[in-house]
Amino acid sequence: MSNQTAARPMRGPGARGPVGRPDMKINKDTVKRLLGCFKDFKFHMIFVAIFIILSASASVLSALFLETLIDDYITPLLGTSGTEGFHDLFMALVKMACIYAVGALSGLFYNRIMASVSQGILKNIRDKMFSHMQTLPIKYFDTHTFGDTMSYYTNDTDTLRQMISQSVPQAMNSIVSILAIFISMLRQSIWLTLFVLLFLVLILRIIKFIGGKSSTYFVRQQHSLGDVNGYIEEMINGQRVVKVFCHEEKAKEDFDKKNDELCKNMTKANTYGNILMPLLNNLGYALYVAIAILGGVLAIKEVPNLSITGIDTLTLGTIASFLTLSRSFVMPISQVSQQINSIAMAIAGAERIFSLIDEEPEADNGYVTLVNAKYDENGNITESTERTGQWAWKHPHGDGTLTYAPLKGNVVLDDVDFEYEEGKPVLHNISLYAEPGQKIAFVGATGAGKTTITNLINRFYDIADGKIRYDGININKIKKADLRRSMGIVLQDVNLFTGTVMDNIRYGKLDATDEECINAAKLANADSFIRMLPQGYNTVLSGDGGGLSQGQRQLISIARAAVADPPVMILDEATSSIDTRTEAIVQRGMDALMHGRTVFVIAHRLSTVKNSDVIMVLDHGRIIERGSHEKLIAEKGKYYQLYTGAFELE
């Protein structure tokens, strides 16, 4: 285990970010930001609004037309003989069918458009998340589990999809329908409308209670889901370790706790969510019966029917039409209440997504850049638009002038202090001087600070005190991308990507030719085993190169660094996964790779650092010895003890 892992603050799989409070209330700012996601689709939403209005209008007109159909076409035919009047009735039915057709087509159109809008918005959100994720510092990924981060792209975006494609159009349609139906009910009968409003008070109180409960548990559900996903991801990646240490029962026990929490939250969320719609439907039926009874009583008693159009008689057609309207009035209210669950869950997911987007990006105030360089006839460095194999630091000045300094690979750490957590120092007063072409080795127990030093040189983390200079330039003044481009790194943990072997080697230099990649593989002694693969360099790797041995994966990683041809190399336990015999072969290639470069080597196998120019022995974040192999052996200090086996690395 690297010292970085040992020293840095880690969060468990259930660790919470800024939105990790399960009892949090829905944030109004999140709702505003979600609405802002629709700005690129405003023309689509205009058409959606038009079709929703047409759909709602068709629903209301069909209910109102029912009064005309009964009073003007059906009632006059009662008790009559012959076919007179049936033609008019048929034409009225055709007219009603046309109204229903307009409503059905409008519903089809706005749902099709919303499907396009929802996918477009999700694409933009995923693009924004992934682009922002590339700007985050290494510290973010050190302190957040991969499973929880993946949950942003899967569960949380899926809740948004459901809300945008289903809940939003249904809610818009329901709101328009409620307004249109309410006005229509007032046009039919104010007395019956007042009765509906009184009944509506009861419905709204029920919705507020049950909807509030379900919203709370749906928010908790999203966070529990991220927690479970994070734990599962950890267990999948660490399955070998789980089995080696017979940790299966403990892993199941821990998973059961997290799964029980998720189950409890999902059960309560869906319990409250699922009882709401049936309850409202039954209340709608009760209202339907109550209106029928009240309407019948008013009609029998010949109570004048008051409406916004005046006073008239309450007819059978009016009662039938109002019953249809009342049913249509309760249904959209039920739909809106049902969508509250989906909306609450989506807003919880959106808040998590926005928390990722709002994470502070990696700060970079550097202004010195790395450019292709060439020498003119006077021996002065000038910038080149083509790759020349020579590099220079481009240094702009306040007066508008530019100076160029050749990239050499001189690295100096001057009295550097560092801490991952405030008040817990990891490095103390680290000073070292690496001349171009020198090989500097770091040895020491795990947690001594070896990997941390290389992380600081790359500016994966910023130092607390002291200075780090690269070719005489404070690295804080160098743009991070240019600083890292000038360095090649071979890590202990190898990461290969889905693609061919050639693609994975070319990852070190995207414009490298096939010939350059093959030469790099030969330098790393990877060429022979690559050619034995089924398709050689065109063999497709997947699952982080799962079909290769750990040593083969490491050789490809070394070839990837070799093709970049950087002036500074960092080898963090680069040969730790290779057997001793192969290591001797690879070491010759590594020596060729290191020739003429500044090299920082971290190794537990002290045989690999014997030929280093300077060996630094670290202990608890301090350099306690430094010098060549011979010098340190002669001093018979800590290095001598490590080398002779009198004291073993922890």
Q: The CATH topology of the largest domain is what?
A: ABC transporter transmembrane region fold
For the biggest β-sheet, the strand order reads 12-15-16-9-17-18
What is the name of the CATH superfamily of the largest domain?
Answer: ABC transporter type 1, transmembrane domain
Mean pLDDT: 81
What is the top-level CATH class of the largest domain?
Mainly Alpha
Write down the overall geometry.
Answer: elongated
Task: Give a written overview of the molecule.
The chain has 650 residues and is α+β, with helices and mostly antiparallel strands. The protein folds into 3 domains: 338 residues, Up-down Bundle (ABC transporter transmembrane region fold), CATH 1.20.1560.10; 38 residues, no CATH class; 199 residues, Rossmann fold (3-Layer(aba) Sandwich), CATH 3.40.50. It is 57% helix and 14% strand. It is built from 19 helices and 18 strands. A 6-stranded mixed beta sheet has the order 12-15-16-9-17-18, with helices on both faces. Strands 4-3-5-6 form a 4-stranded antiparallel beta sheet. Strand 3 and strand 4 form a beta hairpin. Helix 4 packs antiparallel against helix 6.
